[in-house]
Design brief:
elongated, mainly beta, four-stranded antiparallel β-sheet, 2 helices
């Protein structure tokens, strides 16, 4: 035993010496060199670590630099400045022309933007013609502007790809640092990488006639403040040749997206693990073949589908989503797309299907609020099969295509239908038999049905659902209470209740539970004149 303690003491002493030496050898911000090209220490507080180290390298996350060459572009008279050697270059001044990076295929270049303004009327303002990887570092405290008003008639000599963005790169492109960058493109895209595009810091504002951020193989966002306005997709990937490419991954940052088409479009996987995403305008908010949300705060406003899991990027063509006779049957265009929600807070305001999967939908966590469609041809939930095992969902919408979670769910869920449409702005409240509020939500648009699911809803209990002056009693005799809809609901077929639609009648059938109308004690809101 004494020998053991001697060995333990020796190990502890050795460890203490290592820690002391490490502390003595560490470098603090005050130790760093000052002046241009100085290397600034990045602490854990200033640069959060990635939750997925396979997707971001240390250099992606570290905007520091040293041994830099300063280039005052205001002194350049030529219309083109070419960087032909690997290294770090500080760009400053105002310049009308093009900065070209043309280095070896294994070379890396770091462009430090230091209050630089680059405008080009003929092509991309920054053109990465060749290289392994280019870092665009926004120096702390600086404001930078990159713009192009070109008609984009030129193409890359090697690939034939049109050079059609304010910043266009054939190599992997990383935007990092703590400064500000405004990118404007009158006729094309904002930032394009024909490889991977990463954003790990800075304040980035992009306004583009077409897409704001495009990465052919992937778009990866770790941190930063992004304000993206696009005539087309705000964030886009396009590579479907490899199942490991064409993905979007977001784990942090604050994003505000205003798009003319999809706010975020992934050709394959769309993964959101964190961050704050505010989609203020879109046709479809989130689109990808396999969409997985495990964290973050996401607000979506969409004129069509809110979240659309669709194989092959079918876009907003709703003919593939027409549904079928019952869950997983009929005319549905069955695909292998998946929508998985395991965390985060999601709010969807959609005119089309709010939560749409041309395949399966699984909810195991998080909180999801839906202000769904007002027309009978769309639903708050629309998929071949849906299951819930955890989390909270409140999904309000029209009656014609309303559907509930399926019988393979392990968490209770109820689909409640009201006799009359309820005006938007009217709170829906779920209370237990003791009058305690379990769930509540105020949809922004008119609704006639609502799906309610929570871990606090138990079988064998009785609940009251109230919306304005209408009230319904629900007895949970099984895990699932109520299913309905027409052509794509869980076993229902029929038209809009009191609204015409695709059919002339309505049938509501419970899957292992009770039909809502069988247990209803509704009070009609005679003042309601809204239709859905």
């Amino acid at each position: 035993m004494t020998h053991f303690y001697h060995k333990l003491t020796a190990v502890l002493v050795a460890l203490a010496m290592v820690l002391v030496l490490a502390a003595c050898g560490s470098k603090t911000a005050s130790d760093a060199q000052s002046g241009e090209g100085a290397k600034t220490e990045v602490t854990e507080e200033s640069t959060p670590k990635s939750t997925n180290t396979d997707l971001f390298t240390d250099r992606d996350l570290d905007p520091s630099y040293e041994n830099a060459t300063t280039m005052d572009l205001s002194k350049e008279s030529a219309s083109k400045v070419t960087i032909s050697k690997a290294g770090t270059y500080i760009l400053t001044g105002t310049y009308n022309g093009q900065v070209v990076v043309n280095v070896g295929d294994q070379d890396k270049v770091q462009l430090v933007l230091d209050n630089v303004t680059i405008a080009n009327n003929d092509s991309a303002a920054i053109y990465v013609q060749a290289g392994d990887k280019v870092f665009v570092t926004l120096k702390d405290g600086t404001t930078n502007k990159i713009s192009s008003s070109a008609s984009f008639s030129s193409a890359d000599a090697d690939t034939g790809d049109k050079i059609d963005a304010a910043i266009w790169s054939k190599a992997t492109l990383t935007v990092n640092g703590g400064g500000k960058l405004t990118v404007t493109c009158d006729n094309g895209h904002g930032i394009v990488s024909k490889d991977d595009l990463k954003v790990t810091g800075g304040t980035l504002k992009v306004g583009a006639a077409k897409k704001a951020l495009t990465g052919k193989d992937s778009v990866r966002i770790h941190d930063g403040v992004l304000d993206l306005t696009a005539g087309d997709d705000a964030i886009h990937t396009s590579n479907d040749e490899d199942e490991d490419k064409g993905f979007v991954y977001i784990e942090g940052g604050t994003l505000t997206l205003d798009s003319g088409d999809d706010a975020i479009h992934a050709e394959t996987d769309l993964t959101i693990a964190g961050g704050v995403i505010d989609i203020t305008k879109s046709e479809e908010g989130l689109e990808g073949q396999d969409i997985a949300i495990s964290g973050g705060k996401i607000d979506i406003v969409a004129s069509d589908d809110g979240i659309n899991a669709s194989e092959g990027g079918s876009g907003s063509d709703n003919t593939a989503d027409f549904g079928g006779f019952g869950q997983g049957g009929g005319f549905a265009d069955h695909q292998n797309a998946t929508l998985t929600i395991s965390g985060g807070t999601i709010t969807v305001n959609a005119q089309g299907d709010a939560l749409d999967s041309n395949g399966s939908m699984t909810v195991s966590g998080g909180t999801t609020y839906v202000s769904g469609p007002t027309n009978g041809g769309n639903g708050a939930i629309d998929c071949d099969n849906a299951s819930i095992t955890g989390g909270t969902v409140i999904a309000a919408g029209s009656a014609g295509m309303a559907m509930n979670f399926g019988s393979d769910s392990t968490q209770c869920s109820m689909l409640v239908s009201f006799d009359q449409a309820v005006s938007g702005g009217t709170e829906v409240v779920l209370k237990d038999s003791d009058g305690k509020t379990i769930l509540s939500y105020t949809p922004e648009k008119d609704y006639q049905t609502v799906v309610l699911s929570s871990a606090d809803i138990k079988t064998g209990e009785t609940y009251t659902v109230t919306a304005g002056k209408q009230s319904t009693t629900v007895e949970m005799t099984d895990t699932i209470y109520g299913s309905g809809g027409m052509m794509g609901g869980h076993g229902g077929m029929g038209g809009m209740q009191g609204q015409g639609g695709h059919g002339g009648f309505r049938m509501e059938r419970a899957e292992g539970g009770n039909a809502p109308d069988a247990q209803s004690s509704a009070t009609t809101d005679a003042e309601s004149s809204a239709t859905v």
